[in-house]
Amino acid sequence: MIVVELKGLEVFGHHGAYAEEQATGQPFWFDVELAVGERGADDDLGGAVDYTEVAAVVREVSDRRRFDLLEALAGAVADELRERFPVERAIVKVRKRPAGLPVDWAAATVRRP
After folding, report:
1. Measuring CA to CA, which residue among 103, 92, 89, 101 is closest to residue 67?
2. Which of 33, 41, 52, 75 has the smallest count of CB within 10 Å of its CB?
3. Annotation says 93 is catalytic
4. Quick one: pLDDT at residue 99?
5. CA distance 58 to 64
6. What is the pLDDT of residue 100?
7. What's the confidence (pLDDT) of residue 27?
């Protein structure tokens, strides 16, 4: 089983439950894991899952609409990746630096079989 991963893909977005987050926007970091079976094992990009296309889908979903919750954003990305690519499993984590909390980041992770 091959797992294609993107870690720390930064996408600027206007997501969040608070008006300031929605108006100002902020960076979000996406970690994506896609179980792709044996696609790519033959060293042929034509049959593999292309990282640049995966990154483009993440950006597209983030830009398409505003989400109040990280959970919903991660779920929408995971669902779109499952629809667009021949994958057996998608795991998407979305992180942000939450204002007013003494933490490095807050995150939500969604797993779709």
Report:
1. 92
2. 52
3. no
4. 80
5. 10
6. 82
7. 98
Q: Which residue shows structure tokens 């970690």?
A: 31
Which residue, 61, 70, 59, is CA-closest to 96?
Answer: 70
Catalytic residue among 96, 97, 102, 104: 96
Q: Per-residue pLDDT averaged across 54-61, rounded?
A: 98
**Cα–Cα distance for residue pair 111/12, rounded to 1 Å:** 23
Task: Write out pLDDT tens, residues 66-78.
Answer: 999 999 999 999 9
Q: 101: domain CATH number?
A: 3.30.1130.10
Domain count, the chain: 1
Q: By residue range, what is the domain housing residue 40?
A: 3-112
Query: Residues 86, 46: contact at Cβ < 8 Å?
Result: no
d(CA 34, CA 44): 17
